[in-house]
Automatic annotation (TrEMBL), chain A:
Bilayer topology: Multi-pass membrane protein
Protein name per its UniProtKB record: Phosphate-import permease protein PhnE
ABC transmembrane type-1 domain segment(s): 83-275
Gene Ontology BP terms: transmembrane transport
UniProtKB/TrEMBL annotation, chain B:
SUPFAM superfamilies: P-loop containing nucleoside triphosphate hydrolases
Alphabetized SMART domains for the sequence: AAA (SM00382)
InterPro entries named among the record's database cross-references: AAA+_ATPase, ABC_transporter-like_ATP-bd, ABC_transporter-like_CS, ABC_transpr_LolD-like, P-loop_NTPase
The organism's taxonomic lineage, starting at the top: Bacteria, Pseudomonadati, Planctomycetota, Planctomycetia, Planctomycetia incertae sedis
Any one annotated GO CC term: plasma membrane
Protein name per the record: Glutamine transport ATP-binding protein GlnQ
Residues annotated as domain ABC transporter: 7-252
Molecular function terms from GO: ATP binding; ATP hydrolysis activity; transmembrane transporter activity
Top-rank taxon: Bacteria
Keyword terms, alphabetized: ATP-binding, Nucleotide-binding
PROSITE patterns membership: ABC_TRANSPORTER_1 (PS00211), ABC_TRANSPORTER_2 (PS50893)
Amino acid sequence: MSAGFTARPLLGRRSATVLAALGLGVIAWFQLGLTLDDLLPDPARGATARAFATAALHPAFDYQGDFVPAAAPPFWRGVAAAALRTVVFAAGGMFLAVIGGLVLGMLASASWWRTAGAGPLGGRLRPVGLVAARVTIAGLRSVHELLWAVLFLAALGVSPAAGAIAIAIPYAGTLAKVFSEQVDEVPRDASRAMGALGAGGTLQFTCGLLPRAARQMASFTFYQFECSVRAAAVLGFFGFPTLGQKIAASFANGNYGEVWSYLYALIALVLTIEMWSARLRSGRSVR
Amino acid sequence: MNLGTRFELAGVGLELGGNPVLEGLDLVVEPGECVALVGPSGAGKTSLLQILSTGHAPTRGRVTIDGIDPATASAEVLRELRSNVGSVHQHHALVPELRALQNVLVGRFGRQGTLAGLRSLYLPRRRELREVHAVLDRVGIGELLYRPTTQLSGGERQRVAIARALYQAPRALLADEPVASVDPARARDTIALLVELARERGMTLLVSLHDLRLALDHFPRLIGLRNGRVEFDLATDEVGPSRFDDLYRLPRTAGGT
């Protein structure tokens, strides 16, 4: 068409934000006084570092210490038991986290309030409910699981519940945030069509929106499970009987071969979960 | 047999986001009538169908569906009204993650509570399966009953969408550009099927169309919309070619070739 046009810049606020973020990174680097020399260990520690690194090629298949109690189980059983307890801690935490994540995620999603939460009562509660849910979620997420673990250790001592709840709280927050976003991003045409033929709000939500987000939600839950296994392992450093406890003990005694055996067990766990979730994502094991 | 729905619009106007979309619409569609809505893009066809399916409330004037004004109806009455008006959407509006039969079962959600709806979707009874199979068979894809919707072709999905509307057992069927994205042969089949089903079940049928040939061949009554107003409302044999030229003539300022 013949009408004139005004030239507009194509690089706008977003490019400026990216540049600012990069700039912050550079400033932080100088603030910390980081130099590449720091990456080379000083000679005194060099020997330890070398010993630890070479042990990676020689993981222990039996106890390395001199004083092994006669009643101790075979080494491999100790590794297996610690790995299993790590998974049990993670699974216990995730079980609570998924329930909390689903409930809070619904309350924090605009589409839940538009469908299932609609109605005279929901309409009045919505402005408060949506904000309250999102603030709660932010609160749960802003404290790391290890900090929760320290708090619960002080309150409950080294109990299985303390470990599981420490994992459950921040993971519930993260799951809720991501669930709510995933449900809100799903196409709404089918749920609207259900409303047009008279379906109630809960049916619109559970049958028109949830199934469309289900695979992504499951995939993210698996990823979080993987993270929680790592978190459960680290809880061992605080005295919970997971892989981390074994690692700490072996490391303190200089039995680096044992440390690597435990680390390989942890890697095997994470890989197993990854393979399982990959199968789920590809849809082969669905239905 | 269903008895068709009667739609009546009196002085209906609609504004969306401050822009006038429909103005001064006075229309009556009698029970069991088959009507084609024609007109260029942006004429207001979709908005008119949205008003008839209670998706939009008119900004001015009054719409009544079987004598009931949805604007003043109670929640229960509105729900009942909606369960009696079926829609076929251009992009089908199915849930791709569900199977063909589950998308059809959705058709009866308007008459079911939450638990009954969930039960029927995941644990359908034999009687429900038989009924769903019958409607899928009627639209020619009975063998696809258990097929995941993602594995269906565009034409098959459209048939599932029509089957959903049939299973709903509505008294009126509204279709917004149902054939805008299919090839001409399939478009003809689909329109013929919609008209046949409406006649068979006594449903009132309103279809918005771009294709004038299809409108002339299949519908006894044509309503031409342009710029949100009714340009003509005539029996098909009264519509001359000049009517269409006027309806689709481009505004001069747009400078067609």
